[in-house]
Design a protein that fits this description.
Layout lengths: L2 H21 L12 H12 L9 H4 L2 H16 L1 H11 L6 H11 L7 H31 L1 H16 L18 H16 L1 H13 L10 H25 L11 H14 L15 H13 L12 H15 L6 E2 L2 E2 L2 H28 L6 H12 L14 H16 L1 H9 L18
Antiparallel strand pairs: 1-2
């Protein structure tokens, strides 16, 4: 039982538990037993913090069912290893070396010495921002739906936004709040903060504390790469959506200038694996869908609640390309040389993700022949793999085979393509064999 298999089987166990709960009559608004496929799809989407749905969450599920979905979102956002570690802290059990290594593998960082403090910090950050998000949304929802319903709506959407899940209790997601600056601002803030990762938030907090001291802490390479890339992609997506959709009467064409700016910014934020939408993606043009595909595939940042190949992977590959064009032998970022191991890992993530998305799109084209446009099938495949949850409105019309393919795709995207492959093939055997080098024509 390797670390990768422990993580993968842990997610499977949570998904199966969630499926069992969502099948119960108390989870369905009609009081009847739920469809196993609907329960499995919803549980997988919640645990994998994706947001793809085959039924309307607000009307199909009862309050109990919605609460179960919210719990699955929280577990999925924190991650299986984080949740397990937190339970061990409650039970006051000690960490052994294997569990510390598992935590390190989950976050891809050497936190072995401070695992307990890391878990407490992650939990504190999560609860703090989810509470702030609930308070921020409560006034708006309470004024429209009453105190009790407003509190539940604010809590549900705050947790869903922080974990980049995209589940909404409204049948149109957040389209009804297309021009609402406050709701859009709170949701965008939660999505961005949840997506940049706990390490970046904790590092920013420690930097703020160091301002009172004579010597200030410097930012790590991870912080610089994540923050700069996130800001660049947000601005790029903002401009791209505005250029491609401002004349579309079905999306931005009927909005005022300020509403167009707000709406395009929201789409730029949500395509980074959040899943909420204030525009109907089914009415968007092909150019806007292509922009969405690129942003979805890139996704959020490491140790965040989002998916995708991650912002750091993109920057590593771009810097390697630039170094090659400049004739350099080493890739350098912010005065730091990148190791070959890091570069190989980034290449493996990109190749594995590309192959998976291509294979999923091919299978969807086979199982859903001549029912949907190819671009829409590709959109669903990328959305599922990058755990985004955006859809052109065709997910519920997929066959059982198509929905099963999306279930597996969401699962692979959440555990990570490299972790999934490692779970299948096991740990590599160490080797001291070194082979001679030889040139090969490339390009």
């Amino acid at each position: 039982m390797t670390i990768a298999r422990t993580i993968c089987l842990g997610f499977v166990a949570v998904i199966l538990l969630g499926t069992s709960l969502l099948m119960l009559p108390i989870s369905v608004s009609t009081g009847e037993w739920n469809s196993p496929l609907v329960a499995l799809f919803t549980a997988t989407s919640a645990v994998c913090v994706t947001g793809l749905i085959v039924v309307d969450t607000g009307t199909h599920f009862s309050v109990w069912g919605q609460a179960f979905i919210l719990g699955l979102i929280q577990i999925g956002g924190l991650g299986y290893m984080t949740t397990t570690t937190f339970l061990m802290l409650i039970l006051r059990r000690r960490f052994d070396l294997r569990q510390k290594v598992a935590i390190q593998s989950s976050f891809d960082r050497p936190f072995r010495q401070g695992s307990r403090h890391l878990m407490r910090s992650i939990l504190a950050v999560t609860l703090a921002f989810e509470l702030l998000g609930t308070l921020g949304l409560f006034r708006t929802f309470a004024s429209q739906y009453g105190v009790g319903q407003g509190l539940w709506l604010a809590t549900f959407h705050s947790i869903s936004a922080w974990n980049n899940a995209g589940f909404s209790l409204f049948p149109d997601s957040l389209v009804r709040y297309c021009g609402h600056w406050w709701v859009n601002g709170v949701i965008c803030g939660l999505i961005i903060l949840g997506g940049i990762g706990y390490q970046v938030i904790l590092e920013l907090f420690l930097w703020g504390q160091s301002l009172r001291r004579p010597v200030r802490l410097g930012f790590s390479l991870n912080f610089k790469v994540v923050m700069s890339t996130t800001l660049f992609l947000l601005v790029l997506g903002w401009l791209a959506f505005g250029i491609t959709e401002f004349q579309n009467p079905m999306t931005l064409g009927g909005l005022s200038g300020p509403e167009q700016l707000l709406t395009t910014l929201f789409q730029s934020v949500t395509t980074r694996t959040a899943g909420f939408n204030t525009l109907d993606f089914g009415q968007m043009g092909d150019a806007a869908l292509v922009v969405s595909l690129g942003l979805m595939l890139i996704g959020a940042s490491p140790s965040g609640t989002g998916g995708g190949i991650k912002t750091t992977t993109l920057r590593i590959l771009l810097n390697c390309t630039r170094s090659t064009l400049q004739g350099r032998e080493r890739a350098v970022m912010y005065g730091r040389a990148l190791s070959n191991t890091l570069i190989f890992k980034a290449i493996a993530v990109l190749m594995g993700s590309g192959i998976t998305v291509g294979l999923v799109t091919f299978l969807l084209a086979m199982t859903e022949p001549q029912k949907f446009p190819f671009l829409h099938l590709l959109f669903e495949a990328v959305s599922a793999f990058a755990t985004v949850g955006l859809s052109t409105g065709i997910t519920a019309d997929f066959s059982a085979w198509g929905q099963g393919i999306l279930i597996l795709t969401m699962y692979i995207g959440r555990v990570g393509i490299l972790v999934f492959i490692a779970a299948l093939i096991g740990d590599p055997s160490p080797s001291q064999v070194q082979y001679p080098e030889e040139n090969l024509l490339v390009g």
